[in-house]
Design goal:
The chain has 10 helices and no strands. It has one domain. By secondary structure, the chain is mostly helical. Helix 6 runs antiparallel to helix 7, helix 7 crosses helix 8 and helix 8 runs antiparallel to helix 9. The radius of gyration is 19 Å and the shape is globular. Helix content is 53%, strand content 0%.
Length: 187
């Protein structure tokens, strides 16, 4: 074994990946998700460099992640930004644990499809179903969010006639999604 190989092996053994360094307990994940749902969407998007949109014309104000995910007519652009925020946090979990980011990711996709009639992902249907199923099975996910995710089964059957959300003419059809022609191409 060369000195260079030994040095590389030693460096690998001494390097602690912060992502893998923390093992989150269910009660911790529950508390973090609950806290995140109460956080300001605008502040967190700005902190992530995602330039939150100005105040929307939504009937009910949207201040927090919970407000957005449980809004009857959420702004589709904001859902896209939350999905991207969740992806960033999943890839680099310095702010949120990966599992919490994953729940936000799948919840934003479900809400966009269920309430806006728009697919905001390029994920294959099997991967999307598996992710949603995983999220609904997490004991630490609050009942309201779990119910939102569990309601996703009907998403794959029929296509909504119109988009009731605040961005008109943006409903991607099932055919477009399956052909890979959706909003932003980032999954």
């Amino acid at each position: 074994m060369s000195l260079k190989t030994q040095a590389a092996d030693l460096a690998r053994m001494l390097t602690v990946d912060p992502v893998d360094a923390v093992v989150w307990q269910p009660q911790d994940l529950s508390a973090i998700l609950r806290d995140q749902m109460g956080q300001s969407v605008t502040v967190d998007l700005a902190a992530a460099g995602l330039n939150p949109p100005g105040r929307d014309r939504a009937a009910r104000p949207i201040d927090t992640f919970a407000d957005l995910l449980h809004h009857a007519r959420p702004p589709i652009d904001l859902l896209r930004r939350i999905k991207h925020f969740a992806k960033l946090n999943h890839a680099h979990p310095t702010t949120l644990p990966r599992d919490v980011a994953s729940v936000l990711y799948f919840a934003s996709i479900v809400v966009a499809r269920r309430r806006c009639g728009t697919w905001i992902t390029d994920l294959a249907e099997t991967d999307l179903r598996a992710g949603i199923r995983w999220a609904t099975q997490q004991t630490w996910v609050d009942e309201r969010t779990r119910a939102l995710l569990a309601d996703a089964e009907g998403l794959f059957a029929a296509e909504p006639a119109t988009s009731p959300c605040t961005e008109p003419n943006n409903a991607a059809s099932v055919t477009e999604r399956k052909a890979g022609r959706t909003d932003d191409g980032d999954g």
